[in-house]
Amino acid sequence: MAILLCNKCSYLREAPDEYIGKTVKCPVCKEPVAIHNTITFVKNVIEKFQGLQKKYSKLKEEVELELVETEDLNFDDVDIDLHNTSAMTNQTQFKPIIDWFDQKGILLDVDTSKIDTQGFFDEIAVALGDNYELLKDVNDRIKKTQRKGYNSVTLAIANYSQKEVQSLTRYCKALYDFSFVAKYFYNKSEKRIHLTLQQTSSVVNFFNGEWLEWFVFMKLLMLFYEKKVPFSALRSFKVHFPNEDKHEVDVFFLINNKIPLFIECKSGEFRSTIEKYHKLRTRMGIDKQNFTMLVLGLSDEQTKGLTSMYEITFVNEKNFVEYFLTLL
User: Fold this and answer.
1) C-beta of residue 114 within 8 angstroms of C-beta of residue 236
2) Contacts by residues 164-169 (CB-CB < 8 Å, ≥ 24 positions apart)
């Protein structure tokens, strides 16, 4: 048996044995192609594949050894600006999380851009989250306007106090300074803020709920950093179970390389997903107190009631830092 494989266009077909050792033109691209004995050809392919496998295994061992020998990131020894650093993207930082899931047979798909704080998503998210009661209307107006495909928002702020007006204008000016909006204008006499919106997907997704993930991630990052608690952290990554089920995880911390903290962030409807996350908690083997659903706008009374009803812990944007502080 003979085989024809074109190195240029990858055309593949069988050929009569009498052509073995001869060169013919490829039927597709007309390039000269040698005809090989199929058995000999396959043996050569297998040998090359085995050689590449050995090289890969050796490189893998070298990389793993490098990771073992690399000194763990020690946030106690350096003064890090958590709002402007790529330190979180270092694999040494989040490798304990990968190992923790790997022990359960769960693979991770990590996008390090989701934990790189050199952009401005984290700053605006913290500003919005820390003052959500005041800025809620601004966020809702931007989100609804973007959904409708329009690009301008006018905010009437005459009924706000002087201090609130200062906070609103400062926040909207920050949106402009960090390019979350294309234009900003404050008409002081009419007490109106005019915003021209950005329509890029990253900004639209941010106002549509991704800001809450950034807010939670940064607040816990700052908490554990200030308390000098050893941690690893990831945001917005995918987990792949052995049966090929896939789930996205909003925020995940691993304390002291062994205590998992799972946070699902919901800025909208959440009730229909309670059963889904109850099952997910069981599959991951995480204790109820460490598996949380943070629902924007829930009252403290609601979080307590829902926590007593279901096998996951509910928190809100106001009490989640205090809650995780109690776990320390």
Assistant:
1) yes
2) 164/134, 165/191, 167/131, 167/134, 167/135, 168/134, 168/135, 168/138, 168/193, 169/193
pTM: 0.76
Name the class of domain 77-118+214-328: alpha beta
Q: What is the pLDDT of residues 263-272, one digit of tens each?
A: 999 999 999 9
CATH of domain 121-202: 3.30.1370.30
Measured CA to CA, the distance from residue 70 to residue 64 in angstroms comes to 10
Return d(Cα 87, Cα 43) in angstroms, integer.
Answer: 47
Contact between residue 251 and residue 220 where contact means Cβ atoms under 8 Å apart: yes
Domain ranges of the chain: 2-57, 77-118+214-328, 121-202
Its sign, for the CA torsion 125, 127, 129, 130, is positive
Q: What are 232-251's pLDDT values in tens digits? A: 999 999 999 998 899 999 99
Distance CA 128, CA 133 (A): 9
Non-local CB neighbours of 314 within 8 Å, separated by 6+ positions: 292, 293, 294, 295, 298, 302, 303, 304, 306, 307
DSSP structure class, residue 299: -
Separation CA 138–CA 135 (nearest Å): 5
